[in-house]
């Protein structure tokens, strides 16, 4: 059956690959985006996850077109990297509000429909940084670690209604952001990864798609790394 799927931040990078995987699976896919050109083949809704009214308007539009959201992938995120002594209150607040509180907003709104249907999949895109930490990314790491606690609490709260909540924690991924890094920097990062390479966006999308499948119906509260072994033991 075709499901109603929503991927936040689905117009580029990992989010776009996730959306494309669900489209290829025959699902009805909506994405939210703030700027840039959205991909074809999806219902693209402009939405700022830091604004509760914008989130409500986006869900209203998506539900009118596709019905209640059955699979939510909370992927929208930003960075504002700097050392802690240089990190402003705004640097901290913007990252937390987008990555962590924004995920809370969309999860809370999606849950309303899932509870009525007595089924649903909540999938949060975290990061290996949320498990390992990273110098210069105190705000980002905190936001991504927070997703783990949120997902596990939701797993306990919503499990009786057949709603699962899981986390995918990618490591270094081949995206536009990593492509602009100097070759020496990329080589240094790859030396730390047991598999010796970055992930493709499609590899991350495949894990997300599995978590939304029937085969993962008994998986909830899990954190699944897609990091080539970088974060082993965390």
TrEMBL record:
Q: Which GO terms describe its biological process?
A: fatty acid elongation
List, alphabetically, the InterPro entries matched. Answer: KR_dom (IPR057326), Sc_DH/Rdtase_CS (IPR020904), SDR_fam (IPR002347)
Q: What class of enzyme is it?
A: oxidoreductase
Q: Which SMART domains match?
A: PKS_KR (SM00822)
The record's comment on protein family reads:
Belongs to the short-chain dehydrogenases/reductases (SDR) family.
For this chain, one GO molecular function annotation is: 3-oxoacyl-[acyl-carrier-protein] reductase (NADPH) activity
Name used for this protein in its record: 3-oxoacyl-ACP reductase FabG
> Which residue intervals define the domain Ketoreductase in the entry?
3-176
One of the Pfam families matching this protein, by short name: adh_short_C2
PROSITE patterns per record: ADH_SHORT (PS00061)
Q: Which UniProt keywords apply?
A: Oxidoreductase
Entry EC no(s): 1.1.1.100
């Amino acid at each position: 059956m075709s499901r109603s799927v929503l991927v936040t931040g689905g117009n580029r990078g990992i989010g776009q690959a996730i959306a494309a995987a669900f489209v290829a699976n025959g699902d009805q896919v909506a994405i939210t985006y703030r700027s840039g050109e959205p991909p074809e083949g999806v219902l693209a809704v402009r939405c700022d996850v830091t604004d509760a009214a914008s989130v409500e308007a986006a869900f209203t539009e998506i539900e009118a077109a596709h019905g209640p959201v059955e699979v939510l992938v909370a992927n929208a995120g930003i960075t504002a990297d700097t050392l802690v002594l240089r990190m402003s209150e705004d640097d901290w607040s913007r990252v937390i509000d987008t990555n962590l509180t924004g995920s809370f907003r969309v999860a809370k709104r999606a849950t309303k429909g899932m509870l009525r249907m007595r089924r649903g999949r909540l999938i949060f895109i975290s990061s290996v940084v949320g498990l390992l930490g990273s110098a210069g990314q105190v705000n980002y790491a905190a936001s991504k670690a927070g997703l783990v606690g949120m997902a596990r609490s939701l797993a306990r709260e919503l499990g009786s209604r057949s709603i699962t909540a899981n986390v995918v924690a990618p490591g270094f991924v081949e995206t536009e952001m990593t492509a602009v890094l100097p070759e020496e920097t990329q080589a240094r990062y790859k030396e730390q990864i047991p598999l010796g390479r970055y992930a493709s966006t499609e590899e991350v999308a495949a894990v997300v798609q599995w978590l939304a499948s029937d085969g993962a119906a008994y998986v909830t509260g899990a954190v699944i790394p897609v990091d080539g072994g970088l974060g082993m033991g965390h």
